[in-house]
Structure formats: structure tokens, C-alpha cells
Amino acid sequence: MKLNDRQIKNAKPAEKPFKLNDGKGLYLYINTSGGKLWRFDFSHNGKRKTLSIGKYPTVSLVEARQAAENARRLLASGQDPSEAKQQEKRERQAAVSNTFRNIAAEWHKHRETGLTGNHAARVWDSLEKDVFPALGSLPVSEIKVSQVKEVIEAVAARGALETVGRILQRIKAVFTYAIRTERAENNPAVPLVGLIKAPKQKHQPALPQSELAEFYRRLMLEQAEQQTKIAMQLIMLTFVRNGELRAAEWAEFDLDGAEWSIPAAKMKMKAPHIVPLADWTLELLAEMKELTGHSRYLFPSVKDPDKHMSENNATISYTIPTGQCRKYHYNSVGWIN
């Protein structure tokens, strides 16, 4: 006779454990402390086995019968219900450990050996900011194209169109790593490549050679901070980037050896970048030494000596012979307006 809820609720523990049978291998095992456990007995490959289904009332009578029926279907197809349950448990555990964030951490660890510390940190920070809030806790094998699309559309919505491509590239790389390590089968970032195009960069015109002498003459006459004027000259003499000069530290300079060693981390390189210093450059540095030699930076911020000069402070205005006013600042090895 099949069980009913009243029988199950009224069943009391005895001196020894006993069973209440529901039929076809399903029964309720009641132990001496009153615990009521659903079990299913079956035979597979000539061996008697027992499948633990769960505890009553957490698992109801209806749910226990459904679980037993599922086990019978597995047996009919030649599968062992106990092994199937263990496999399902392993898959659940894998889904928890193989989240997008965890896979991304593995990918980043393998990749960062070829990156400078600063660049590796920026890559991870971009994932923390734009990707993990939406995808971080999801099993990597279950993430859909639509979910990745929502991430890059959110980045685009705040106007960071140039960042979209980098974010999508990093998401795509994480999925490629997941596929390579057999934690995913598809890459939902691939169909989205090119969906949101970054705006074409507008290259600003460089200072023509014909205007260089006039620019230098006006630079010397400019009512600007002496630090700014020297910075303008040094960028022309050293051919370093804007940020590299503004972030230059006195500890990086060997004035006796006429060399400036820029740390690899600042250059996104594996080795320091050595900049030879010409006599004119050394003269300018000697002048700067008198002005800022007490500071960490060559060009410390006026507002905060613990920081370096901002890009805004490295701007000079002058009127070219045609009467047109331009603002010039240094960028990479060129002067742009």
C-alpha cells in the first residue's frame, strides 16, 4: 500500500530503525532519533544499491516519488542513479568554482607574466568595474550572448566607446581560456565583435617645422611657470611621452652619467627605458634641480608636492603669424594643438 502524508507525519521512532514502504523500491527510513529519510533500493549490473533521496519534510512525498521515477528511467536506459547523482553534484560544484570571475582570475594570472605591473592592474580593474558586477558570479559555461551584450552596451551608454572594444576583447579572451581548459564550449563574445564601433580618432595636427622657431621664441617670452617652460623644452629634447616626463622622479636620473632610466612599469615594457641626456638637457635639469630638487618629482604639483604636474599645467598659448591663437601641449614625440 502506498504511503500518505498522514502516515508519514504520525510515524514515531522505535527502538530499532524501520521502513515505511511506498512501493517499487521507494521507502521512508525512520531512525531511532526520529529522523525520516527517503531512500530508493535498486539493482544495477547485478549489484544491490541504495540511493539517498533526502530528508522528510524537506523532500515531500510527491518529490520523493518523482525522484524515484527519475531513477527508474535512468535504470531503464542502463545508467546507475547513484553515479548520475554524484555526477550532477560534481557539475554543481564545478559551476560554483568555474564562475566567470574565477576563470578570469586564472586567465589573468597566466597572462600577467607578459605584462607590466601597471598594465596588468589596469586590465583587472576594468573587469572589476565593468564586467564582474554582471557576469562575475555566473558559471562561465552558462553565460549567453545577450548577457555579454548588456555589459558592453552599459559601457557604451556612459560614452566610453573607446573602452568597449578593450572590454569585449578581454571578455573574449577569458572565454577562449575557458574553452581551452574545457570549462566552456562556446564563446558568447565572438558574435559581438564589431557591434559597437569606437569613434575614429581625430589626429590633431603637429606643429609644423616652419613654426618651430617662432614657437620657441614665444615660449621664452610666455608668462608661464618656469617649470612648464622647461618641461616643454625637455619633451623636445628627450622624445618621451607626456605622462612619462610629468611623472619623472629625480631618483631615475644619473646626471653624471647623462642618462635617464625610466622604470619598465611606467613604459609598459619588460626592461627600463634608457634616455641619453644631451648637454642642453643637462643644463635644463640642473636648473630644475635648484627649483624642485627637494621633491620626489621633477615636476611636482603646486597644489600637492606628493603628486606630479597635471597635463593642464603643461599647456602654452601663443598666436601664430596668421593671427590664429593656438594652445599647444606636448604629447608623445609631437606637439599638437
From TrEMBL:
Residues annotated as domain Core-binding (CB): 98-179
Highest taxon in the source lineage: Bacteria
InterPro entries: CB, DNA_brk_join_enz, Integrase-like_cat_sf, Integrase_catalytic, Integrase_DNA-bd_sf, Integrase_DNA_bind_dom, Integrase_recombinase_N, Phage_int_M
GO BP terms: DNA integration; DNA recombination
UniProt cross-references to Gene3D superfamilies, sorted A to Z: 1.10.150.130, Integrase, DNA-binding domain, Intergrase catalytic core
Biased amino acid composition, Basic and acidic residues: 82-93
Region (Disordered): 76-95
Tyr recombinase domain boundaries: 202-337
Keywords: DNA integration, DNA recombination, DNA-binding
GO MF assignments: DNA binding
UniProt similarity note: Belongs to the 'phage' integrase family.
Database matches in PANTHER family: PROPHAGE INTEGRASE, PROPHAGE INTEGRASE INTS-RELATED
Name used for this protein in its record: Site-specific recombinase, phage integrase family
The species this protein was found in: Neisseria mucosa (strain ATCC 25996 / DSM 4631 / NCTC 10774 / M26)
